[in-house]
Amino acid sequence: MTDKTHLVDAVTGHRRMRRLRKSDWQRRMVLENRLTVDDLIWPIFIVPGSNIMDPIAAMPGVFRMSVDKAVDAAKEAADLGIPALATFPNIDLSLRDETGSQILDANNLINQTTAAIKKAVPNIGIITDVALDPFTSHGHDGILRDGEIVNDETVEQIVKAAIAQANAGSDIIAPSDMMDGRIGAIRQGLDAAGHQDVGIMSYATKFASCHYGPYREAISTSGLLKGDKKTYYIDPANGTEAVRDAALDVEEGADMLMVKPGLPYLDICWRIKEAFGLPVFAYQVSGEYSQIKAAAANGWIDGERAMLETLLCFKRAGCDGILTYFAPEVARLLAKQG
């Protein structure tokens, strides 16, 4: 028999990586990560009124919805198999003040939305945020006193808000404010109010990022924000600090951990998954979404492929799920693929 050994066989020690890539069935058979509808959480924006679908200019395909339309969105999500929604209110500017007191109103916009969705679609998950930025006149996530975001007073307020949200039917409280001690305080407050079954998805590592701009337009805080949020968000340069921050949230009782933004921080997703073993979620934030949409609209990239590739990257980085504005679009696409 003629020896057909090639120089490449000698160089590689007869190990050829392309063997498992040569056909579609083989590539599918050895696929390490898959994106499914179960990985998706759909963030939606709520406004007062009825029959409102207000397009957000900086986020093509995303709308501010009145409560009735949010209920319709929840029904759509349930039909598509999306497990949960995350709701973010855009309240009337006249209701916003220095302390974000409207968040404590049991019948505020976010709690109205939760109650309405739970009544119409009881089996879909509702995730709510207790950060104060949609409720403050200055756009910060906490209470502003003499130019400083005060930590402890803010924590006291968001604990009350968390209880009100749980009373309205929220399944998971997801505090994004990054105040010290908030996770343990919320856990104690929820338990004392009889909400032991309400989970906490901690925004464990939320960075002082440039990628939040379209979101701030969506909730009408971009023109309100005084200064920046660097005294409470994490510096993008600091990975070890981010892991330490997540560790404190784990010790305080977080059930799940979130990394925000998503794609620029895949290393953090991996590090906290490896370190703590809790369910980890990434928030593919508004700036990430808008970049893909804008590039696709200009014909610079294949938008559908970019959407799916970025979401799959979160899975590869150890994420158990992704908050993404692409959720309904991806769910419909996955359903067609069967």
Task: Write a short abstract of this structure.
The protein is about 40% helix and about 15% strand. The protein is α/β, with parallel strands linked by helices and about 350 residues long. Helix 4 links the parallel strand 4 (about 85-90) and strand 5.
Distinctive features:
lyase, two-stranded antiparallel ribbon, 338 residues, 40% helix, porphobilinogen synthase activity, porphyrin biosynthesis, eight-stranded parallel beta barrel, TIM Barrel, 12 helices, ALAD_AS, globular, alpha/beta
Describe the structure.
With 338 residues, the protein is α/β, with parallel strands linked by helices. It has a single domain (37-337), classed as Aldolase class I (TIM Barrel, Alpha-Beta Barrel), CATH 3.20.20. It has 12 helices and 12 strands. It has helices spanning 7-12, 24-29, 67-80, 109-120, 151-168, 182-192, 213-218, 239-252, 266-276, 286-297, 303-316, 327-337, and strands spanning 40-46, 53-55, 63-65, 84-89, 125-128, 143-145, 148-150, 172-173, 199-206, 256-260, 280-284, 321-324. It has an 8-stranded parallel beta barrel, surrounded by 9 helices. A two-stranded antiparallel ribbon has the order 6-7. Strand 4 (84-89), helix 4 (109-120) and strand 5 form a beta-alpha-beta unit. The longest helix has 18 residues, at 151-168. The protein starts with 6 loop residues before the first helix and ends with a helix. The relative contact order is 0.13. The mean pLDDT is 96.
